[in-house]
Amino acid sequence: MEDLKPNPANSSPLTPIGFLERAAVVYGDCPSIIYNSTTYTWTETHRRCLQLASSLVSIGIQRGQVVSVVSPNTPAMYELHFAVPMAGAVLNTINLRLDSRTISVILRHCETNLIFVDQASCGLISDALALFPPEMKRPPLILIADNAAAEDSSSSSSSASSVSNRADFVDSYEEMVQKGDPLFQWIRPVSEWDPIVLNYTSGTTSSPKGVVHCHRGIFTVTLDSLIEWGVSKQSVYLWTLPMFHANGWSFPWGIAAVGGTNVCIRKFDAATIFALIHRYHVTHLCGAPVVLNMLTNSPDNRPLDRPVKILTAGAPPPAAVLFRTESLGFDVSHGYGLTETGGLVICCSWKSGWNRLPAAERARLKARQGVRTLAMAVADVLCPETGKSVKRDGTSIGEIVLRGSSMMLGYLKDPEATAKAMTAEGWFFTGDVGVMHPDGYLEIKDRSKDVIISGGENLSSVEVESVLYTNPAVNEAAVVARPDEFWGETPCAFVSLKEGLTRRPTEGEIIEYCRGKLPRFMVPKTVVFMAELPKTSTGKIQKFVLREMAKSMGPAGRSRL
Fold first, then answer.
1. What is the pTM (predicted TM-score) of this model?
2. Where, if anywhere, are coiled coils annotated (predicted)?
3. Domain coverage including residue 343
């Protein structure tokens, strides 16, 4: 069989862009996008993306060049996930809640060739471009006009004009769509290893890096996610997860693959989510644990008429939050992924036998991250001292490592960081600390930088946070290390309380509550009450900010734990 080799008939490059082409054939007259009073079909979305890709090529965008977009979850944001790669370019979605300095750094680092700007972010991009060095050419801008943006508190009537005074709007989004060729032959990748997207890490650390993914990786993680989560044909997906965050965990392409309906929203709160679920019979939505917490604590929450699948990832969700979410009728799935994996690559695959367990035990099991998805070749936990797999006992701690087809190509212009994360032994080191349970399910215990070492004992901030979330007065909680004169470090808890409390607990009462549920060395020695904890735009609590706050308090005085 040595004479049988790859040939053009069996080695066409894998790409998720073909999902849209197929959707237009199979689901052509079905709704693809719903946004306020606008509805498109899959035939229309396919045509619009071809026209936009055609216009991109006509203004000089070339294969491999970077095209950036700053937008909330609008139809334009969705279409750009197909149109930019259809032009052979690389899509760079930027977190619109970053400050102008960080956005300026990103735009310069990726050497973007064009920026699509939602009108509510015009002032932000104007400020970011003003920070470019005088000798550096500023990329042209395309304005995404949106009547709904006028209701956004961050927009103003002068925002668009302020940008046009400083940089050139070469066109508007809709004009580019209308001018393009609907019969455009989109530019297919030469190799499935060609880059398709460039994402910057989310900001839980202070130095975001540019993560490059290829067509092959996004293709596999998209299908992987659909299979694992059980997304069926013509599901209705509500966009509560920002598309700028790891490309919405690959679901812009995934919903096209199944011919589903994308319900887009610019911004949301609990009342909006519940209203849209009932209006459009939503079947699926995603969100960080903070979204679950928001839904369960909202006065607008109400039991669902039918189950809605909700996929959560990010910080490990406390079992108490999972229990409250499912009591409303949500079917919660829990997963794990990073910007570097392109989507979720570990999921808590549910076993039917677990349904017979008590609710508290079900929530505890669901809080675990789980097992590798089908396309992820290996997921393991390695002992940092020996480099070997830890014991499957649920207590032996090590670093979570991954190997699989959806891993990034690497960090843009950062070979040192790439080599550090992706080793010669074939592992991607996540920086997350976890354990492996006897049944082969993985559970995150902390970020490596978040492990607190108190009196020589390693303690998990996640475990302390899970206890804090069981307190009926606590809305949000995060635990970091505070320097301690005697113990080296002790847990410092930052807590926000629920609204409408008749009596607010004291620091001592929160500490005493934890004493009844944790070993003494894990009990917070300090509790800081805040109106709201600092977060990234995707709901991840910014622990590096809290660590600096705890550090600025100075060492805690000597006392016995």
1. 0.83
2. none
3. 268-448
